[in-house]
Amino acid sequence: MKRFCILLALLIVGARSHAQTVPNGNLETWPTANHAQNWQTTDDILQAVIGIPFATGTTSKTTDKYAGSFAARLETKSMLGSSAIPGSLVLGTGPLNPALDNLGGMPYTGHPAALQLRYKLSGPALATDSAFAGVTLTRRANGRTEVVASGFLFLLQPAAAYTLATVPLQYASNAAPDSVYIMIASGSSSNLTVGTALTVDNIELTGSALASRAETAAAASLSVFPNPSADGLFTLAAPQEPALLQAPVTVHDLTGRLVLTAPAAAPGAASRTISLRGQPAGVYTVRLETPHGLITRRLTLQ
Question: Which residues does UniProt assign to the signal peptide (predicted)?
């Protein structure tokens, strides 16, 4: 179980609008009832950890779909009568190395802005179970794996009908990635609850992030202070690129809930204030739709 949690954590920390193909992202192809093509499951992770096949039944095909004919149902179940273990989907067919050298993954060279999926969620303790979706883009350089971008989203509220979840990608560099890793699970906490069920469909990478060195330099000029903020006020500044401050702004919390939206601002201001007063303490993502592309920053409210 400890290694399983490490596998989850690695994906959490480090993936002109059009959808980019995730192999079998519509979850229409299932060679067996418990394995979607191009995806691995909790069973595969456990086999990598303990060395023998282990069937949990935590991931299965369902006709309760958003589109097409099928979707995937991920359910947290009891293992050996005691421990609870989440259902999961891991993109890629490569081996899941317990030494954390390989977590599936697929070749990929794009710069998407976000991972999107449709989901339903139910269960007795969703806020503590922390169902999630995570994406990481990496590249191999000088014999090492480098994280190019990553993003994650905790799903904490029930959703009886299919709901859109958006996971913004935070870029660490402008380098071209060579691989993408996606993981979705019905729970990620250390104390899971049996019965949490996450149904997912239509998994895709969307949008386009910054693509040139000039654009990356422009994005790097955007700063946020104070961060963390104790009073809920954050100041955006971009001395080298003040036009960035004119961009429309949205802010989401870790569940993907939209908490703030602001239209384009008038030119000429040296700074711009984002107010999260009245919001609970936590981590938020501010998104600016600039002429250079999507720019995101993390905001921490104390």
Answer: 1-19
Cβ-proximal residues to 264 (8 Å cutoff; 6+ apart), any chain:
246, 247, 248
Give me the residue label for tokens 């899941």.
96
Amino acid of residue 282: G
Residue 22 φ then ψ, to 5°: -105, 120
- Hey, how many other C-beta atoms are within 10 angstroms of the C-beta on 162? 18
d(CA 56, CA 82): 13
User: How many Å from the N-terminal Cα to the C-terminal Cα in the chain?
Assistant: 32
- Separation between Cα atoms, residue 235 and residue 271, nearest integer Å: 7
Tokens of 59: 């991931």
- The full DSSP string for 27-39 is ----SBTTB-TTE
**How far is Cα 249 from Cα 8, in angstroms, rounded to an integer?**
31
Give tens-digit pLDDT for 282-298: 888 888 888 777 788 88
* Length of the chain in terms of residues written: 302
Question: What Cα–Cα distance (Å) separates residue 156 from each residue in 142, 191, 254, 268?
Answer: 39, 15, 9, 40
